[in-house]
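Suppose you are handed only two things: the residues of a chain and a line of SMILES describing magnesium ion. What would the bound structure be? This form records exactly that question and the answer produced for it, so the two can be stored side by side and reused later without any lookup.

QUESTION INPUTS
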Amino acid sequence: MSEYSAVSRLAEEAYGVFDTATSRAKEIFQPTVRLGVTGLSRAGKTVFITSLIHNLIHGKRLPFFNAKYSGRISKVYLQPQPDDDVPRFAYEGHLKSLTDERLWPESTRSISQLRLTIEYETTNSWGKMFSPGKLNLDIIDYPGEWLLDLPLLSQDFATFSKNAVEMAKSYPRSELSGKWLDLAGQIDPDADFEDPPIIELAEAFSTYLKDCKHDKRAFSTLPPGRFLLPGDLEGSPAVTFAPLLNIEGMTAKPNSMLAIMERRFESYKSKVIRPFYQNHFARLDRQVILIDALQALNAGREAVVDLERALGDILLSFNTGKNSFPSNLFTRRIDKILVAATKADHLHHESHDHLQAIVQRLVNRALVKIDATGAEVDVLAMAAIRATKEATHKDGDDEFQLIVGTPREGEQLGDETFDGKTQKAIFPGDLPENSDSIFKVVDSDHEEEFDDLKHLNFVRFRPPALNANAPKNEIDIPHIRLDRALEFLIGDRLL
Ligand SMILES: Nc1nc2c(ncn2[C@@H]2O[C@H](COP(=O)(O)OP(=O)(O)OP(=O)(O)O)[C@@H](O)[C@H]2O)c(=O)[nH]1
Ligand SMILES: [Mg+2]
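ANSWER OUTPUT
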């Protein structure tokens, strides 16, 4: 069976399971939006979902979320989640760490979900004759690394190897891939299978992927995603393989190194990627992709180039690209995608639109590269939780726009190291109104610095002081533009 028909059958199976008459009937009586929230690790998924849930249930400041602002939402509450085999999103625990300890939630490394029900008054007079509107909102948090695996479904081991090796040989990843490539060069694909060299090679390959991830140039992730976060699979054959060199056109001899690698690669597809695709991805209706654009801008040109590439890869999975063959099967359902640059509270509000414009341009460029069609894509610069306030400092005729917050312990700015307890006013600098200079650097084919960004001061802050002892419904989580995100994502389903 060709790769194409393999994937199209997979898609049919997935829709066959979920698009049955019963589930369609359920959908009429219990309208549900399945909202996926993803982003590479540390992008801000957990913080975003925690704030979104809290603000939906208790929020008071959501002027651009029409249904709420116009008073049509009567009640929002948590419900038992629909899938019993998926971990629950630990909303209460995350909220507690934010409010009681002023600590950001711990990193979450797997999928989780939660269901909210929104009761609202419809604007439609026909609807009003029946009962108040009710919308279930299923929120699914999953690592963006898993998304980057989806293109592997359409690849065989030789293609996967070729892509991975090409990427590893190109600068700057070539600085990190030497050990693995050397070892790979010593493997004879025709030799009889032996576990120790495969384990050694797979470890060197994982180390290379992890080094890329942790490099200060903030590279985004390369597949296979579970090599970074293997969880229960750690040590199992499905995550113990690695790309091989020069195997194009080769037919694997039985029981050879190549044969075993091919088999394990196929197991990874069938045991890891395919269940994620069928059980979760294929069932999403709307999607938020969080990106840490500020971190990439701060890290320099390579990081921005890499972010743009990763964004293209991610958007491709949502079938915004018509060239990728499986893509048109992927997004039968997803009709709206929000790309949100989180952590805009690191900048003064005058720069928020500039950040949004930079992200819009990154997204447009990524969409052009993948020849996009399909879902509606919107872009937002926002902060799910606003950790800073704003202030102005006057020095003679000059006015400086400052942000005020508690920098995290150990953060540095100039000669100062912060203690994590004291509130500070910081001049964050502003992003240029016109991003041409930034993209000129991005498009240059050599190491170059962002001259326009040199004056920026990025400091990571602790969460804001929230009134921890107050009843939950009185805790107001400040945000930037979360209401606009809500309006884009579910506003049309609350009419
Ligand atoms: N100031 C500010 N910082 C944020 C915001 N959202 C996230 N952060 C920072 O980004 C870090 C990562 O946020 P998380 O929500 O845990 O990110 P994640 O995508 O869930 O990360 P993983 O679970 O590791 O994949 C936090 O620890 C905060 O330091 C925000 O709205 N404002
Ligand atoms: Mg998380």
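WHAT STANDS OUT: Residues 1-8, 12-21, 320-331 have pLDDT under 50 and may be disordered. Residues 151-272 form one domain.
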